[in-house]
Amino acid sequence: MAPIWGFESLKPGVDVGKLIPRIPRQGIDPRTGEVDFAQIARRRYFTCPNPAKVNIPCTVEQVRGKTELRVSSFPHIAGIIVVDPETLKIQSSNSVFCGALFGYEKPDGMGIDSLVPDFEKILHILTREDGVQLQDGIVVPEHSFRRASAILGLRENRPDAAASFLRPDGLPGKHRDGSELKIDVQMRVVRSAKQSTIIQETVIEDEDEDKGGNNHDDSFSILHSEVVFALWITYSRHMHAARSGLGVTSASASGTTTPLHQPSPGQTPAHTPLEISSDSDEPKPRASSSSTASAITKQLKEVAMTAAAKLTGGPRSEKKQEKPPVPQVVEPAQQKKSIDDFQIIEDMGQGAYGQVKLAKYKTTQKKVVLKYVTKRRILVDTWTRDRKLGTVPLEIHVLDYLRRPDLRHPNIVEMESFFEDDVNYYIEMVPHGLPGMDLFDYIELRSNMEEAECRSMFVQVAKAIGHLHTKALVVHRDIKDENVILDGEGHIKLIDFGSAAYIKNGPFDVFVGTIDYAAPEVLAGKPYGGKEQDVWALGILLYTIIYKENPFYSIDEIMDRDLRVPWTMSDESIDLIRCMLNRDVAARYDIKQVLEHPWCQEVDEED
């Protein structure tokens, strides 16, 4: 009882309504009368006030065969809610998480303001006044939501607004029973796979008019992607129930509006950068014309065919691609490097923390890949101190660690050096094959891949993960087809360590990576070690390589849907996928078992 109400025991005769104010009662007056056990069984989820009058979400159940109630409460609750950016209605959610925190097991179709009452207003402050562009890949961290919520409280003259502004402690949330809660929200704008069923009515008329017509209702499914808001919502009893003052709506004396300032060290892993005045962080417009596009497409196809030949052992293209030079370790302290030393050739895309560009040195014409890591977007807890490097983002620390002679791996991207200015860190890497040729592009171009080709690509990625897990003791946490790049010879490298972490720092409780590749235990808000989740993502990756689609189309499907198998390439490949996509974390394959699986072992015979 102490974690909820603050006392160990209770004297007989205390009305249950003092402990659970909104418990259902029989009769006209909801404050008196017999407890309605039938309604309790239907609703299950209520809130209980602690000694500080802060509401705590609880589950209330009748003890079987008795007129007693069992009240339970989770000390920590976390999960994902997917929201439509246009309507701000909930598209997908986890029933266990939503029930335990908000009292709604199936909030799909409801407006997000029903659970987070100020969400739309906070979003307005973030976008219109903070200048946050809600484009694919951007992440808005908890502290940005807290600050915007505190500013909103000042503007609406809430009684606790000043205290909340100085010591923001979360956002107001609303339970199904009408009580207010405190929660934290992190939002990631992501592009997620979606399956739509199209019903097509076909009318076939026979030549004999007396026979009439036959109507055939054919349906087919199409896959497309959509941009959604993925809200990572957390509740911690020790943090959010520690004090009172929950965004009460009653008015008070007039307050002043505090001017906004940009968050620092700001927003986190983001694929699309915010607009800022610095030229070094502003995306350059990409030249486009039909002839250029055709040339690029042709070049991509040529490289894809050459890589396919390499992977399957078939004839290669006569044009041999030069292998990149071995990266040289260049410490940033030895020479003051600047972005002005480079000429930008092409925007290659977006990375976890910012942009990725192909550039060349103005003096030597040497080509490099530069990843821009915008400082104000780096999460507070992902900065790390190092005696040699100073204070740097964790991504740079991990990449520097992985370029030690005994930790290098042929299938892992290697950082040549890094440098910084007031706005960005710049990670310098050697180009790997044709710039921009990732596994996502390759799969699109190679409509019919042989099993040997699929196996060669997957095993290379698995070996990279095996090296990280067993030797470097690092977890990647964002394995997906877009983070695997190929050269013209079929060689693969794993890139983008913006979500990587050291295994010793686990277990982790914050969602990173991509929803489509996220393991069910992560989406359920459970603490996770990282290695098991990398293997789950490998299972999604192998399925995607073979079938060119995601196995699951929503959070609910990830949580409990049986694996759909469109067709069988081989019994061994399906067995490996099932072993990696085992929802029982303890029974799921580890990376050693993956590499020792008979399907992966065949790659040595093919070589």
Automatic annotation (TrEMBL):
Its EC number is 2.7.11.1. It catalyses: L-seryl-[protein] + ATP = O-phospho-L-seryl-[protein] + ADP + H(+); L-threonyl-[protein] + ATP = O-phospho-L-threonyl-[protein] + ADP + H(+). Gene3D superfamilies: Phosphorylase Kinase, domain 1, Transferase(Phosphotransferase) domain 1. Residues 249-258 have a biased composition (Low complexity). Transmembrane segments: none annotated. Residues 342-600 form the Protein kinase domain. The lineage of its organism: Eukaryota, Fungi, Dikarya, Ascomycota, Pezizomycotina. GO terms for molecular function: ATP binding; protein serine/threonine kinase activity. GO terms for cellular component: cytosol; nucleus. This is non-specific serine/threonine protein kinase. It is found in: Cytoplasm. Residues 249-294, 311-337 are annotated as: Disordered. It comes from Colletotrichum higginsianum (strain IMI 349063) (Crucifer anthracnose fungus).
